Amino acid sequence: MQPPVHANVGMEVPCVPDASETASRQCSARSLTVEARGVRDGVPITATAYDGRRKVATASGRTGRPLTLTLHDPHLWSPDDPFLYRLEVKAGADRVGSQFGMRSIAVKEIDGVPRTVLNGTPVFMMATVDQGFRPDGLHTAPTDEALAYDLKAHKRLGFNSVRKHIKVEPDRWFYWADRLGLLVWQDMPAMTAGVNPSAASRARYEREMKEMIDEHGKGSSGAVYTQIADVEGELNGFLTYDRAVLKPDTAKLRAAHEALIRAASRVTPTGCPAAQPVLN
Predict the structure, then answer these.
(1) φ and ψ of 232, to 5 deg
(2) pTM of this prediction?
(3) Taking 80 as the threshold, does the pLDDT of residue 211 lie above it?
(4) Which of 45, 138, 142, 181 is deepest in the core (most CB within 10 A)?
(5) At 112, is the pLDDT very low, low, confident or very high (cuts 50, 70, 90)?
(6) Architecture of domain 6-105 in CATH?
């Protein structure tokens, strides 16, 4: 009996849609890479993508090497239209099912202003800071329905994003974010409060942050991976978009903060109308 097959699914976007055109016109073909783990090399493997019951892409080979499926004119995932393809992977006598969405996310300068763009179109991420505390399980949801409850509430209230604060949820939580259509900002959990981290602690923090992104960065919802929002054992400098860990330019960051302080400190801040007298 062969060991079970685990499909490790990752999206690869070979071209970035232009903000001035629709993503489907600018990027007519995208690919999905599938890799089977937990099975010996050389076993025949086939991966097939479906839109409902309609087959849209397939690729075959042998385990030990990734398969690439090409989707032409893909239906793109977004919070307004969280479309998910169905995936079926067969390796030997084993079969596993999954789902995936196709989308791109990046930061692009538009009219001189850096903007977050989803599928080539600027998107404003409206989110709450969600700590995931539960009245009947503290950090652990007692049921799948409970795990999805807060995310469904986000959608009902009109949010298109959620920031998971100082906690990392299981993959099933990201599954619901994919399915419901919520972009996720994922915090890196804090280190010990009030302690200046040692070099070893910093190295471990960086290593565990990379592991967090590798483990939870495969879905459609995962958009931003960032450091903690509080200053408890904070390690500055992490800001990531779509699974790439970057160090921001500290000079630009300082200049932006100083410009904001100068503008906000004026009697009439830049861009604001002059104050009007209040009549009693």
Answers:
(1) -90, 105
(2) 0.72
(3) yes
(4) 45
(5) confident
(6) Sandwich (2.60)
Residue 211 one-letter amino acid: E
| Mean pLDDT over the full length of the chain | 77
Q: Count CB neighbours of 77 within 10 A.
A: 24
- Token pair, residue 62, equals 């042998």
Q: Tokens 């302690």 label which residue? A: 195
Kindly report, as residue ranges, where domains of CATH 3.20.20.80 are found in the chain: 125-258
Query: At a CB cut-off of 8 Å and minimum separation 6, what does 173 contact?
Result: 147, 151, 164
Mean pLDDT of 77-90: 94
The pairing of beta strand 161-164 with beta strand 183-187? parallel
Buried b (16+ CB within 10 A) or exposed e, 140-155: ebeeeeebbebbeebe
pLDDT in tens, 138-179: 888 999 999 999 999 899 888 899 999 888 899 899 999 999
CATH 2.60.40.10 domain locations along the chain: 6-105
Q: Which fold has domain 125-258?
A: TIM Barrel (3.20.20)
| Residue 251 in tokens | 């000079």
What gap in Å lies between CA 37 and CA 39, rounded to an integer?
6
Where does 136-255 show beta strands of DSSP type E?
A: 161-164, 183-187, 222-226, 239-241, 244-246
pLDDT of residue 144: 94
Distance CA 216, CA 7 (A): 14
Cα-to-chain-centroid distance, residue 235 = 21
Identify the H or E element spanning 177: helix 171-180
DSSP state of 138: B
Own/partner contacts of 151-160, CB < 8 Å, gap of 24 or more, are: 151/176, 151/177, 151/180, 151/182, 152/176, 152/180, 154/127, 154/128, 154/130, 154/180, 154/182, 155/180, 155/181, 155/182, 158/126, 159/126, 159/127, 159/128, 160/79, 160/80, 160/123, 160/125, 160/126, 160/127
